[in-house]
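Aim 2 progress. For CotH kinase family protein, the working sequence is reproduced below.
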Amino acid sequence: MRHVAALFIAPILAGCPDPQAGAGTTEDAVGTTTTGPVATSTGDDEPTSTSSGTGSAATGSGGETTGEPPATTGEPESPTTGEPAWQPKDCPGFYAQDRFPTVELQIDPSELAELEQEWAIADDNDLQEHPLLSFKVDDTVIANASVRLRGNASHWHDQKKMQFEVSFNTYDKKGRFEGLKHVLFDAAEYNRSFLRDRLALAILRDVGLAAPCANNARVVLNGAFYGLFTNIEKVDSEFLERNFEDPRGNLYKRGGGGSGWDKKTNEEDPSEADVEQLNAADTVDDLRAVMNLEQALLEWATEAVIPDRDGAWGGGLNQYVYNDPRTGFVVIPWDLDDTFTRLEPDTDPYTYIKENHHGRPFYDIATADPVWFRRYVDAIAFAVDTGYDVAVLQGRLDAWAAQIADAAADDPNRPFTLDQHQDQVDDMREFVAERRLFLDHWLDCWQSGGVDGDHDGKCDGA
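Predicted structure tokens for this construct:
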């Protein structure tokens, strides 16, 4: 199973100063609030998780940040066999932070015209696989891959750049590229830094969560530089094998099917009884019967820390749940381009929920319980302490912005100016510092005996 630290479950007293929240960013913040926890505790006082998480953020030999999850300092032994315990595997080499691949796609002009037509029609329910003449990275050439669109032009009014998913198992079920079935190239118009997913996912991995890996990539289409993209690992069976000791469970993505979830593995079995039982949960005890609630709490908390406007914490659709046969359902984050400066640095980690949200019933059940609300505060503290070091995050932004600078400048399909790109990188750099100040202040209030005196969900002091 995925090893997630239980340290956040015990109170973490972070002797923080009393800083002021930073100024807002240039983008509008949106959202509504919920009320504070008032329900009687229904969960047990003692957590079930005893696994440990990762250490502090990784650094290179010279002290520079690497963007990789920190390495473990030894192999824990199985309590039953004495053999080394199973550990999640590192990110695939294609997503190494010091790697900036150039991906060359060759496609027949008629197939490219069909792709462009699909982009213009903007029907996400009718995206076709198109054969590639070749897929090339460095000295590796694959001649039987396929490509399809991700998203469409209606998602962003000024978007000129198509987004791609390349599959290696469409025509050969055993087809792989560096062990991967798929590679994804993302370029949301409002992700002008090209770095939101990359930084947010690094934070999630640093706190010990199963989260996709990401870096950046150049895409060359039919011999011409097409653009700079975020290169993101797909959540699929290969991802499950990398992150979970037992990868045979059901994987669901929110937003489809009669259950509100789209089944992504074991599709030959039409039953969705497990996720229907999860949907039916009304109490903490109901959740704990089918869900690894400690893991889910840390995932929600880390999204709140970043913050992520469109994931599980914010009431969005960008999330997966995996029914780990060893622990029950866990939450897997997805599509982290709606993060950081999409919200204000003083966005409340508990009360915020996006406008036109899709609900977050599991979060609401857990945080309405006073015992689990306290654990949620401690999970916030753990995520801040483990994954939100300002110097580390700013160091990553500086290194990665320098890495992609030439490609960002040369991108012929970039739907914003180079100044807008550079401004957003600068805004993100300022944002992480301002966000940390606010989070320290928020934690200081709740952990110093603060209460929600006016029942608006916000800490009013002791």
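The radius of gyration is 22 Å. This observation will guide construct design in the next reporting period.
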